[in-house]
From TrEMBL:
The chain crosses the membrane at residues 38-57, 77-97, 109-129, 141-163, 183-206, 218-239. This is Transmembrane protein adipocyte-associated 1 homolog. GO terms for cellular component: plasma membrane. Its main location: membrane. It is found in: Membrane. One of its GO terms (molecular function) is G protein-coupled receptor activity. It is a multi-pass membrane protein. It comes from Ceratopteris richardii (Triangle waterfern).
């Protein structure tokens, strides 16, 4: 995920000095958690809560389909869907209850855990689907989990190095002008993800096009994340050069990613599987009813 998590202001910190209020614009104040009320946080978390409710309502049917299909891959990614939705909900709860003054390191640690899980899931979907979408490929699943775990671990290690080693507040906002290293980090990270998704989008026009799946949902997934990361990178660029509007783009891309990534992941990876399974189950039920003689009186 090249998109950063929204910065949070520690509770108990002193008020922002008047000269800082004059120096920074509307967009800078918009992304500060101390300016977020209950309804702001409620509306921001609503897509995630709604999707979790959808998963809960569909859970019985989903479990039955997964048990009948006996696909380790789909079962694993269904668990991943729950995990990423829960992690996003945790992330929004962290926004509602920002860290008390003096406990920022604990909050940073929780943020690192949440971002690790989300990055691992995002990378794993791309890596697995790029192998041809073999629903019974347990070996492909294992390779995918190992690779995505390594990527997420490296990403988390670099973040931890910035936070705990260099003292750069990647997830927190401080009084006064912020450390430019923070936004340069997020800019470079966004550009890395932009490059990765652009590479995937260009592959169908090369001699390696047969290595990617021919599923439209896969490319829609890549296009959406490419656009979000471009938006994020552009926002971080504006922030680095001192343009206040960059904070608005940063906040917008962060909201859309954290709010709508779980449904996007579900639509990309599991929706078709469950729809196909519905048709298959209907055929099975029809055959069982026919064998039991339910339709004999119709002849």
């Amino acid at each position: 995920m090249g998109i950063s998590m929204a910065p949070v202001y520690p509770v108990g910190a002193p008020d922002i000095p008047p000269d800082i209020n004059k120096e920074f614009g509307v967009c800078w104040h918009l992304i500060q958690s101390r300016h977020h009320g209950f309804w702001y946080n409620f509306l921001a978390a609503f897509p995630v809560v709604l999707f979790l409710a959808f998963l809960l309502v569909q859970s019985r049917k989903s479990f039955q389909k997964l048990l009948h299909g006996r696909s380790y891959v789909m079962t694993t990614y269904y668990a991943f869907i729950w995990a990423v939705a829960f992690l996003n909900l945790v992330w929004f709860l962290l926004q509602v209850w920002p860290p008390m003054h003096g406990k920022a390191k604990v909050w940073d640690f929780l943020s690192l855990i949440v971002s690790f899980g989300i990055v691992m899931l995002e990378v794993s979907v791309v890596v697995f689907l790029s192998q041809g979408y073999v629903v019974s490929g347990s070996d492909a699943l294992l390779r995918t989990i190992i690779f995505s775990s390594l990527v997420a671990t490296a990403d988390t290690f670099i973040k931890a190095l910035y936070i705990y080693g260099l003292g750069v507040p990647l997830f927190l906002t401080r009084d006064g002008p912020e450390d430019q290293r923070k936004w340069i980090f997020w800019l470079i990270r966004s550009l890395v993800f932009v490059g990765a998704y652009l590479f995937i989008l260009l592959l169908p026009h090369t001699k390696w096009r047969d290595r990617l799946p021919a599923r439209p949902t896969f490319y829609r997934y890549v296009v959406i994340l490419f656009v979000l990361n471009v938006l994020s990178a552009f926002g971080h660029t504006l922030i680095c050069i001192g343009a206040d509007f960059g904070y608005c783009l940063h906040g917008l891309s962060t909201f859309f990613y954290n709010g709508f990534y779980p449904p996007l992941l579900y639509a990309t990876f599991l929706l078709d599987y469950f729809m196909e399974d519905d048709l298959h189950l209907d055929d099975i039920y029809y055959s069982e009813m026919k064998d039991a003689g339910y339709f004999d009186t119709w002849d």
